[in-house]
Design a protein that fits this description.
- The structure holds 2 protein chains of 2 kinds.
- Chain A has helices at 28-36, 52-60, 72-80, 117-127, 141-150, 174-183, 208-213; strands at residues 42-46, 64-69, 84-87, 102-108, 128-136, 186-194, 200-201, 216-223.
- By secondary structure, chain A is an alpha/beta fold.
- Chain A has one domain (24-223): Rossmann fold (3-Layer(aba) Sandwich).
- In chain A, a hairpin with a 5-residue loop joins strand 6 (186-194) and strand 7.
- Chain A is globular, with a radius of gyration of 19 Å.
- Chain B has 10 helices and 6 strands; from the N terminus they run ββαβαβααααααβαβα.
- In chain B, 45% of the residues lie in helices and 11% in strands.
- Chain B is of the alpha/beta class.
- Chain B has helices spanning 36-50, 63-74, 93-108, 125-139, 142-149, 168-183, 186-198, 209-213, 233-245, 269-286, and strands spanning 19-20, 25-26, 55-61, 79-85, 219-225, 249-255.
- The longest helix of chain B is centred in the C-terminal third of the chain and has 18 residues, at 269-286.
- Chain B starts with 18 loop residues before the first strand and ends in a 5-residue tail after the last helix.
- Classes of the chains: A alpha/beta, B alpha/beta.
- Chains A and B meet through helix 3 and strand 3 of A and helix 7, helix 9, strand 6 and helix 10 of B.
Chain lengths: 226, 291
């Protein structure tokens, strides 16, 4: 309530940031995701980090964008930047959203760090008419070789954590992911298999080659019959 | 920028200290009990009077945050952006309890005279000071109090084994109490705390807070502070969940600080930067030109 307490002086004009300084160029996989989203869509970006994708989409495609981010620094950076972002946890904070609240719900490089990936995937398909999910492929030949030849947990630029302090508690292969989507009755509308530099291979997601060669996969999913 | 005094207060807008035109005497307890909704209606009349159709941004902390939420619910088409800070959509049982302690302190003061102290030329200063002391503790945090005062003694080398203000924190609180009395009216304190107690934005909607916001086109930015135990982050999160349930445009930040509820009145750089960013973003959307 603070009845009658003195109020601190506002920030001097020089301390305020000019609105929307440009962010660095988009990461390759985020650029591909951005290309999948039509102009003017309603978008929820979950695990939006510093807001790079949302910022790009709002600048170039006039989307009505929202974000959710776990880290406080990320959220504050986004809001400072004029983006609509809430502090939240994908495992716990998706339930309040109504069905089909968004045209696209994006979950990039986060599914493997969730506690309940199956429930999260269901929620994404419920609150978005389309869900775009990207994740590192644990079936990549490098990962398989690490285990087969060296007997060590994989450690590479895509999975740059030691086994004992990784946030990635639910890693999966491209084939695993396709299996879960099928189990949940989700339709794969589009898929991209990316190499290390984030460039797409021309491979069908269901192919053996995709599961050996892809460093990450990007999938657009929707509920069947929508 | 419009900043009006609150209905029921004693520093401008009508309150129990003012003269009742029917009797030519102070209203005292004959002043009607008022609500947050009444406060907002008075503000709405003010902007009508000023000829302002819609507000770019309604900002407030604590009880002011309740007014922000009330504005957004009652006059959605007149609020482009709303920033409820360190607040809640309904007053919690704990907060009602603290308010009740304050009111009982005032009413237990013999100088309160059943609320008639102005006519009788008296002033319930001790009761009001105690009310303020109790409330002031709730604006701070355990860490902030300890950082500021620890167990330091006030103007003495040793404890006195008596009931003087041995500790600096006691002296500080007594000062907070007595200086508040100089600027605040005891009956106004009763009315304003009661207005907060009665606030429950979901009450008109069968307890479903989301319904209070259905169809809203206002952009929201809720802000809470980690060490605020009067309006803890969970209260802001409840507002956010309700807004998400109607797919409203929301931002939410929790600011790390040990300064407790008071943080919203203090120079917290991260808080001010975030708020500035939100307002700038809204200004761009609204088509304001950045000079």
């Amino acid at each position: 309530m603070g009845l009658g307490t003195t109020i601190a002086a506002p920030l001097a004009a020089a301390d305020r940031q000019a609105p929307r300084p440009a962010l660095p160029p988009l990461r390759a996989d985020l650029k591909l995701i951005a290309d999948m989203i039509p102009a003017g869509s309603r978008v929820l970006d979950i695990g939006c980090g510093d807001g790079a994708l949302l910022d790009h989409l709002s600048r170039t495609k006039r989307v009505d964008g929202r974000g959710m981010e776990l880290s406080q620094e990320g959220v504050n950076a986004c809001v400072r930047h004029g983006l609509s972002v809430i502090q939240g946890d994908v495992d716990n904070d998706l339930d309040p959203y109504p069905d089909a609240a968004f045209d696209y719900v994006v979950l990039s490089q986060t599914l493997q760090a969730t506690r309940h990936p199956k429930k999260v995937l269901e929620s994404l398909a419920r609150i978005g008419r389309h869900a775009i999910v990207s994740f590192p492929n644990f079936g990549h030949w490098h990962v398989r070789l690490d285990l087969l030849l060296h007997g060590r947990m994989p450690y590479n630029p895509m999975l740059a954590y030691t086994w004992y302090d990784t946030p990635n508690i639910h890693l999966c292969t491209i084939r695993d992911f396709i299996g879960l989507a099928a189990k949940l009755g989700l339709v794969i509308e589009q898929s991209l298999i990316l190499d290390r530099s984030g460039q797409p291979w021309r491979l069908a997601a269901e192919s053996r080659a995709a599961n050996w060669l892809g460093e990450q996969g990007i999938f657009v999913l929707s509920k069947s019959g929508r | 920028m419009i900043c009006s005094n609150v209905l029921g207060g004693c520093l401008g807008t009508s309150g129990p200290m003012d003269i009742n035109p029917a009797t030519n005497e102070p209203w005292g307890l004959n002043f009607p009990v008022i609500t947050i909704g009444d406060m907002v209606n008075v503000q709405r009349r003010l902007i009508d009077h000023l000829g302002i159709d819609s507000l770019f941004c309604v900002i407030g902390g604590s009880m002011g945050g309740m007014q922000v939420l009330q504005w957004a619910k009652a006059y959605p088409e007149r609020v482009f952006a709303a920033v409820p800070i360190a607040t809640a959509a309904r007053h919690s049982a704990q907060n009602i309890a603290f308010n009740e302690v304050g009111r009982q302190a005032i009413m237990a003061d013999p100088d309160w005279c059943g609320g008639d102290y102005l006519r009788q030329g008296r002033s319930p200063e001790r009761g009001l000071a105690v009310a303020r002391m109790a409330a002031h503790i709730t604006y701070l945090s355990q860490q902030a109090l300890h950082r500021k005062f620890g167990r330091n003694l006030q103007d003495r080398a040793k404890i006195t084994y008596g009931f003087e203000a041995d500790f600096q924190v006691e002296s500080y609180l007594r000062h907070q109490g007595t200086s508040f009395v100089e600027r605040f009216d005891a009956n106004a304190y009763l009315y304003i705390t009661r207005a907060m107690d009665y606030f429950d934005l979901a009450a008109d909607h069968g307890g479903r807070l989301a319904e209070a916001f259905r169809g809203t086109r206002t952009r929201y930015c809720a802000i809470s502070f980690t060490s605020d135990w009067l309006f803890p982050t969970a209260e802001s999160r409840a507002i956010i969940h309700a807004l998400n349930a109607v797919a409203a445009n929301v931002s939410f930040v929790e600011i790390e600080t040990d300064k407790g509820h008071d943080a919203f009145l203090l120079d917290e750089p991260e808080f001010l930067r975030t708020l500035g960013g939100f307002i700038d973003g809204c200004a761009t959307l609204r088509g304001f030109v950045w000079a």
